[in-house]
């Protein structure tokens, strides 16, 4: 009986194969007949009955031969896709908390409640006395430089004595390299001990961030958006800032709004004045800390801040990793203010004060009039020099190349 069943199965299987072969031959014959009438699928033109009104007969061919995207468009799409993929991956890894974990009432919860921005600082004193031993080490090291006794105006800019003499001399204008070095110190400290700061959802950007946005804002504003208000030309590297890829020094890889609420950055105004900027994403608000308010009029400050007020919210919407997240944001501009009750600086010390404003605010410290007194400018400079020497001994040699590939480039 088993043999009869096997024979029946074989016979049925053979019949199926014959049917499949027959159907395949019929399909192939139909395809050949169709090609003989209309041409091949690749070269076939649209038939009259397939066209809409006023559509040329070769419309499908034109569609198939769409122009190749420009180099700028290709770069934009690549960066957008990379940033979006990174953001989606991070979103998938985001831990979903139970209701009991989200509530501050822990009576019935055996799980530790996670409360963001809990106040577990202060971490360190930004105005701690200078370590005299470390200051002597710095001085002795500078004495070994061949240009130690060369007048400041004749020292080569590659000289470490030029670098530190500028930083330590009262009322000397701080160069971009000094500003960048101190921002890097803050990044390093924050990376090592985020609990020392007032939040674990912040980042420190350098002056190139502000510089690029200012230079490219007109093209951004003049570019035509799509029906949703998107598709404008973004500055080169804009996606990288949003995704935490830039800056590369102690790269955070934290996404704005999802992982970052507070952004700190120094701003250079026409190479004559330094100010500090705090961007609060949740509050949709920007605070400018200006040590010499008379250096920038209200009208001039409006021009300086305009690109941040519009481009930050735009970036949040444009770079959102999903339509659901995009719907939570708005293209409406941020608001801004410039407090006038903070300790002022003497002309020339604005860079030092801007950096210390950022440090103190990030630490949750008040701007003490005692420590920010004008005569203390020299002490603050020496303290910063010693800290940089100890924590980033090669800072004077470092060159910021984060945005070299993006200078003059746009995304969009």
UniProtKB/TrEMBL annotation:
Name under which the protein is recorded: (rape) hypothetical protein
Record GO terms (molecular function): cysteine-type peptidase activity
Keyword hit for Protease: yes
Domain Ubiquitin-like protease family profile as annotated: residue spans: 128-361
A GO BP annotation: proteolysis
UniProt-listed Pfam families: Peptidase_C48
Bias (Basic and acidic residues): 42-53, 61-75
UniProt family annotation: Belongs to the peptidase C48 family.
Region (Disordered): 29-75
Domain of life (superkingdom): Eukaryota
Keywords linked to the UniProt accession: Hydrolase, Protease, Thiol protease
Organism, as annotated: Brassica napus
């Amino acid at each position: 009986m088993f043999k009869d069943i096997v024979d029946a199965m074989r016979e049925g299987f053979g019949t199926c194969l014959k049917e499949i072969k027959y159907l395949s031959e019929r399909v192939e014959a139909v395809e050949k007949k169709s090609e003989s009438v209309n041409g091949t699928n690749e070269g076939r033109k649209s038939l009259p009955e397939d066209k809409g009104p006023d559509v040329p007969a070769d419309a499908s061919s034109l569609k198939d031969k769409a122009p190749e995207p420009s180099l700028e468009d290709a770069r934009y799409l690549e960066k957008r896709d990379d940033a979006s993929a990174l953001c989606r991956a991070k979103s998938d890894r985001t831990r979903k908390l139970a209701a009991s974990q989200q509530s501050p009432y822990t009576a019935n919860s055996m799980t530790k409640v996670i409360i963001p921005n809990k106040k577990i600082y202060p971490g360190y004193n930004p105005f701690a006395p200078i370590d005299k031993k470390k200051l002597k080490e710095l001085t002795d090291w500078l004495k070994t430089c061949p240009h130690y006794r060369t007048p400041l105006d004749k020292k080569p800019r590659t000289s470490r004595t030029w670098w530190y003499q500028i930083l330590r001399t009262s009322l000397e204008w701080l160069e971009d390299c000094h500003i960048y070095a101190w921002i890097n110190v803050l990044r390093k400290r924050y990376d090592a001990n985020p609990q020392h700061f007032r939040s674990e959802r912040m980042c420190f950007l350098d002056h190139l961030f502000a510089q690029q946005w200012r230079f490219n804002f007109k093209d951004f504003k003049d570019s035509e958006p799509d029906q949703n208000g998107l598709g404008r030309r973004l500055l080169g590297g804009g996606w990288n800032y949003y995704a935490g890829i830039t800056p590369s020094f102690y790269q955070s890889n934290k996404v704005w709004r999802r992982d970052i609420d507070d952004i700190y950055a120094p701003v250079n105004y026409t190479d004559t004045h330094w100010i500090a900027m705090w961007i609060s994403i949740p509050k949709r608000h920007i605070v400018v800390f200006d040590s010499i308010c008379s250096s920038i009029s209200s009208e001039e400050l409006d021009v300086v801040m305009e690109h941040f007020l519009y481009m930050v919210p735009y970036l949040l919407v444009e770079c959102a990793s999903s339509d659901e997240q995009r719907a939570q944001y708005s293209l409406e501009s941020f608001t801004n203010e410039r407090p006038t009750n903070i300790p002022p600086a003497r002309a020339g010390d604005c860079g030092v004060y801007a950096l210390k404003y950022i440090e103190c605010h990030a630490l949750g410290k008040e701007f003490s009039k005692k420590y920010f007194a004008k005569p203390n400018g020299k002490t603050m400079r020496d303290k910063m020099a010693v800290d940089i020497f100890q924590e980033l001994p090669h800072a004077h040699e470092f060159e910021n190349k984060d945005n070299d590939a993006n200078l003059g480039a746009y995304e969009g």
